[in-house]
Amino acid sequence: MPLKPPPRTKMEYEKVNTEDWVVGIIEDIQSDEKRDTGFKDEESGEPIIKHCVRFKFKLDGYDYPHYSRWMSLSYHEKSNLLKKYLFNLVEGAQPDMDFDLERFKGLHVKLMWSNNGDFQNIEMIRPVDKKLDPTVPF
Asked: Is the full-model pTM beyond 0.90?
């Protein structure tokens, strides 16, 4: 008799339109202070663990929440969080700026998604109205 696990049920996720902008709001910012990045330290070979964040979106016309990728909580000039999100959503965004991500909660955005195998990724994000002004208190 073969010794193998039973077949797993394949999950069908709600797919987002990849042909046009999808509108919604940033509902939450999730944080994981000890997230395995999937990379290993070159010298030790140990997994690289970092404080990471991801965005949770409520999209118009969709039943389930949709999420960004996990990203290092860094505003370094090469960080995805700065390049993809802060530059596009915050007026005058700069590397290493003083900005609280909590300000994004409730922001109306439009997103362009792409297919990546069984997953979908955010390619572009823009505010529906105007960029956030970091000098205005919230």
From this structure: no
